[in-house]
Design brief:
By secondary structure, this protein is an alpha/beta fold. The protein has 10 helices and 8 strands. Helix 5 (about 120-125) crosses helix 6 (about 130-140).
């Protein structure tokens, strides 16, 4: 089985609609795909409807924006009840803060002489949950940087960048608690992606594991072989699940679906732990 547990659609910062994502996942030979848009579940219905006629199984999820000790991190949440009120309210708070944050980054860019406009960024984001990749795409359109990845540097949009603006984020310990209360399973996304900025220390990961964290995303394109080996050992030591995924964003990043995958037994463990929702297969 080929299982990809981290993908994005136009509901956040991907370029495939949820339906296109499902079709592309089936075309890529995947058996299971997780839809994990940033802080939103708005793509679920369209993705589920698109399963008809495929042999694909959909794992519903979200990627929650978190911060601990001043370090930004992302938490993948799987198979939670999307209507659970406390987690719903927390997601809405984080999602709603994305617009003023993005406007603030646009204002900083303009102060630096980059003629990006809010209208341009809003057009790129469409109905999605606006974020830095949309601003980066605007910068590519203007010829400021050659690729989206080139905008995520200290010169521009990285966590220590000149135009970075803080946003409302979950405390990861609270995220673990809320997701668990909603019947879901939590996996720390790309914990060793040091090119994105400062990473969370292993001792904090150990504390998260003690608080109920279920797994680490080990196999990820932003992890070098040595990093994967270290994280796999850490997962074994802390008795955490080790997942793999593409972190697919469509045309916004040059990473194909299924670039990294999760073993079937790990998915089975995730599904067994979840009580908020079940994987959805085509009828």
């Amino acid at each position: 089985m080929r299982i990809d547990l981290h993908t994005h659609s136009t509901a956040s910062d991907g370029t495939d609609s949820p339906a296109e994502l499902i079709r592309n996942a089936a075309g890529a030979g995947l058996d299971v795909v997780a839809l994990t848009d940033h802080d939103t579940v708005s793509g679920y219905a369209e993705a589920t409807a698109a399963l008809a006629g495929t042999r694909l199984t959909l794992v519903t999820g979200a990627e929650l924006s978190c911060k601990v000790g001043g370090i930004s991190m992302h938490m993948l949440a799987y198979l939670f009840d999307p209507a659970e009120p406390r987690l719903y309210a927390a997601r809405e708070l984080v999602r709603d803060d994305r617009v003023p944050r993005a406007r603030g980054m646009v204002a900083k860019l303009r102060e630096l002489g980059v003629p990006v406009t809010w209208e341009q960024v809003a057009r790129i984001a469409g109905d999605g949950s606006v974020g830095r990749p949309h601003i980066a795409t605007a910068m590519v359109e203007l010829g400021v940087v050659p690729t989206v990845s080139d905008a995520f540097t200290s010169e521009w949009l990285a966590n220590d960048g000149r135009v970075y603006v803080e946003k409302a984020e979950f405390d990861p310990f609270e995220a673990v608690r809320l997701v668990k209360a909603a019947g879901g399973v939590t996996v720390f996304a790309h914990p060793g992606a040091h090119k994105r900025g400062e990473t969370v220390p292993d001792e904090v990961i150990a504390e998260l594991a003690a608080a109920g964290l279920d797994g680490l995303e080990v196999d990820h394109v932003d992890h070098e072989p040595a990093t994967r080996e270290r994280l796999r050992g850490l997962a074994r030591e802390l008795r955490l699940l080790a997942t793999g995924s593409s972190d697919y964003h469509g045309a916004r990043k040059t990473v194909p679906l299924g670039a990294c995958t999760t073993p079937p037994e790990v998915l089975a463990d995730i599904a067994a732990r979840a009580t908020g929702a079940e994987p959805i297969s085509a009828v």
